Amino acid sequence: MDVILETRDLKRTFGAVVAAHNINIRIHAGEVMGVIGSNGAGKTTFVNMVTGYLPPSSGEILYRGKSMIGLPTRVITRKGIARSFQIPQLFQELTVIDNMLIALTIADNPAPPVFKPAIDRRLEGRAIEALERFGIAQHAHREVGTLAQGIRKLIDIAMATVSDPALLFLDEPTSGVSADEKMEFMGTLIEALKSSDTAVLFIEHDMEIVEAFSPRVVAFYEGTILADGPTAEVLTNDKVREFVIGTEFHRTADTEGVA
Amino acid sequence: MKQLDRTELSLLVALPALILAAMVLPSWIVNYVQVSLGMGLVALGVMIQMRAGLVSFGQGLYFCIGGYAAGLAGKYLGISDLFALLLIGILAALIIATTLGFLLRRYREIFYAMLSLAVSMILYGLLSSTEELGSTDGFNLPVPTYLGMAPSGEAARMTLFIITAAVVVASAIALNRLLRSSLGYVNEAIRENELRVEYLGASAHNAVHVTYVIAAVVSSMGGVLWALSLGHVDPEMTNWTTSGSFVFVCILAGTGSIVAPLIGTFLLEILRVYAVEISPNTWQMILGTVMLLTIIFLPKGLWSLLAKSSTAKRFDPEADANTQPGE
């Protein structure tokens, strides 16, 4: 698989605080990977740097071999890197289809035309189609602010995918979703994304979700990468068990005998 | 875009209705309507910025630039043609707004409001202290001509009224289309969540800049037409009280429709007349009370009494774009 994103010695400091350092990672086209780590481990800082929200203090970010340092968020998005948010970033007072139509309009027009009508039947059809992929088309005409967190999460992700990104970062997609719905939620999500060749990197705290949906895992600890590799390998890594997931999580290792 | 929506059809119907009314109504009412139409264009400029969540407390700047550009062209270049004066006003606003836009596009909320106010007050200070331009008294404009024609008497009054009404209706239709355009939708998105707009791949700064320039151009046209109606300009056009009245109109009438600020401007003019009549020394109290009651009981303005609540309609391409989110 082609490497679409590579970071080299990425570092971000806030004054004397080092939020992330020595981040070296390679993401391949179409792969699904989980990112784990306790709060403050540097996961979201990493995503913020790669998507242009935070400029790195040092290091390099290469997307398809070209440097992304210094590019604004919108340019990075247009190049094919999209993200969703831990707290869904939606247009709360608008309807679901409103949100999708705005996302589609922006995806279609780098500079929004001043007098060309934004909405037509074809665009509405695409919006409904996108919502159907995520199983939320029935909420199309409801105001976003009135919907449950799980649905808002899906809308947030659906909006991020309208530009057909090559790489999609999902920041804690299942946070706020009830424990018994998480598996089904994530299943819907991965199924919806499967039809495209989008590489998906999701930040997750639930190890069962990570184990079930990502063949590869990167573990962050104190601002740097502690382990990176096949899921079973990383989740049974001693340091990862000690510093990231705790020693209670050992189902895979114990039942499947993976070292 | 070939199809006209309900708002645009209403505006097209309103044009001959206004002209017919001007022929039969007393001249003092016609004068108020004419002045209101000029000021209504400035209110429209404020309104389209409000749709992006930006309140300009200094829109009088472009109202004044339009008026003074026309006045200076008449005074120093001897130009009296209304269309040429309109063009000069537009060009002046375009140049200044494009330049200032690079600064204002970076600010939001109170900072945008105060910065726009500050710039308008700088012009107020400059004009007030420039004796060559009549300082606080201002100066008079030439009687307008129309492509070489110079009507007189009642014909002159009606010609100016008809052209003012036609320019306002055409501008309102254009701005209604702007609200339905991609830029219009992006502006609403900016008001709701600018971070998301950037993460969807659009430049909020660029959208705000373009909107600011369009608002300036429309406001300068209002300034030219208003100044030609009264035959006079003075620095009060860019004073904070004038700019405040445009914001007042948008709060009073609401921003739910492009028609609302036009009606609101006329209502404000009438309200001001009666307030002065009733209480000559404390008429501002009446305006303040109306403002207070509007904010409390009709936070989305008088237009919200008429607006339909169907959000779904909003996305019917054949329907109009007048229902704001949340209405």
TrEMBL record, chain A:
Gene3D superfamilies: P-loop containing nucleotide triphosphate hydrolases. Residues 5-247 form the ABC transporter domain. SMART domains: AAA. Coiled coil: none annotated. Pfam families: ABC_tran. GO terms for molecular function: ATP binding; ATP hydrolysis activity. It comes from the Bacteria. PANTHER family: CONSERVED COMPONENT OF ABC TRANSPORTER FOR NATURAL AMINO ACIDS, CONSERVED COMPONENT OF ABC TRANSPORTER FOR NATURAL AMINO ACIDS-RELATED. This is Branched-chain amino acid ABC transporter ATP-binding protein. It comes from Actibacterium atlanticum.
From TrEMBL, chain B:
The keyword Transmembrane applies. The chain crosses the membrane at residues 9-29, 61-77, 83-103, 110-127, 158-179, 246-271, 283-306. GO terms for cellular component: plasma membrane. CDD domains: TM_PBP1_LivM_like. GO terms for molecular function: branched-chain amino acid transmembrane transporter activity. Its main location: membrane. It is found in: Cell membrane. InterPro entries: ABC_transp_permease, LivM-like. It is a multi-pass membrane protein. Coiled coil: none annotated. Keywords: Cell membrane, Membrane, Transmembrane, Transmembrane helix. PANTHER family: ABC TRANSPORTER ATP-BINDING PROTEIN (PTHR30482:SF17), HIGH-AFFINITY BRANCHED-CHAIN AMINO ACID TRANSPORT SYSTEM PERMEASE (PTHR30482). This is High-affinity branched-chain amino acid transport system permease livM.
